[in-house]
Design a protein that fits this description.
The protein has helices at residues 12-26, 37-41, 45-54, 65-74, 92-97, 107-120, 144-153, 176-196, 208-213, 235-244, 360-363, 368-373; strands spanning 7-11, 31-35, 59-64, 80-86, 101-104, 124-129, 158-164, 202-206, 221-224, 257-262, 265-269, 287-292, 309-312, 315-320, 328-331, 343-350, 353-355, 381-384. By secondary structure, it is of the alpha/beta class. The protein is elongated. The two termini are 24 Å apart. The structure holds pyridoxal-5'-phosphate.
Length: 385
Amino acid sequence: MPRHSSRIELSLSALRKNIKFLRSQIGEEVQIASVVKANAYGHGIEQFVPMIEKCGIHYFAVASSYEADEVFQVATKESHIVIMGILYPEDLEWVIENQIEFYVFDYERLVLVRDVAQKMGQQAIIHLEVETGANRTGLPPEDFTKSIKLLRENQEHLRFKGLCTHLAGAETLANNFRISKQIVRYQEYLKKLKKLNHQPEIRHIASSAGAMSIPEARFDMVRIGISQYGQWPGPDIYHLYMAQHPAVKKNPLSQMITWKTDVNHVKEVQRGEFIGYGLAYEATRNMRLAVIPLGYSNGYGRSLSNNGYVLIHGKKAPICGLVNMNLFMVDITHLRNVKVGDEVVLIGRQNNNKIEISSFSEFSRYLNAELVSRLPAAIPREVVK
Ligand SMILES: *Cc1c(COP(=O)(O)O)cnc(C)c1O
């Protein structure tokens, strides 16, 4: 097989450590749903799902029926899948038939699901997503009572698996006033359920940030995305944790992804020459450059132009000029004997140096999750120890 221009390695031991740490945070009682939307945040559903099943997690959350199918193809039979986002009416029969769970956030959809499940003689597994103030998807409050009645009266065809909502930015402590209000509103729904005499099997509202920093948001299940991959949901949550645990000296989460390529070409550039397109970078001294064979079409964002760096021989090599569609240049004047074919690390460790995903948010406006979730599915992924 002809080779791709880069490759990704996924560390099973880093993932195990992350899950162990998350467990120590949230306790043994709370169930973990692993959020694997966006191709497992770019890590690769095909590789990641079996890896985390090995860590004892068998619940997966995705954003669409397309992604549900990707997980369905590789997960073991004992695993559950829940679709949190778009589910086209044409896919309803497929999800019901395969016992794939899904969010419902409007009353008409609930009626449609009941009708389809009835026609099939089967039971659909529903998570009712209520509006608590995020104002994305979420059932309007005025439709709550009639939705619960519909669920209660059609139990043969509608299984009330979950009552859920999504917190609007628990990663930032300044949002606390909004988040606490959401939790109060959610608890009001739970009270109403008692009166309506119909209970969900599980209650879940927290993603990584809520799960890690707000104990009362954990309920029966948490939906963990970014932190299982070894990234903190944001600096606030990291610093809060470190401040509350002064004995902990080292970041307890480990990045599990390494992204590598190879030097494609080496060249000398004379002082006064420009590098790459336009006038973005002028050599102010005689320089040696390495050409790196990938660019923005491979998920290495253009905002890293003249910014950011890669690792070669364990040392930083800064980007010179614009990141092009499929290549960019780095300065290797300070490195000895760099040759075509030498390993280049874009994300992860090389010798004693490491590029953290979170460092990209310093050179560009990338969020932790944004850079990795854009890594193209075509890059080969390999599981390592
Ligand atoms: C993406 C997502 C999550 C996971 O969020 P992280 O911050 O990555 O843990 C949880 N719930 C919903 C509804 C999501 O869309």
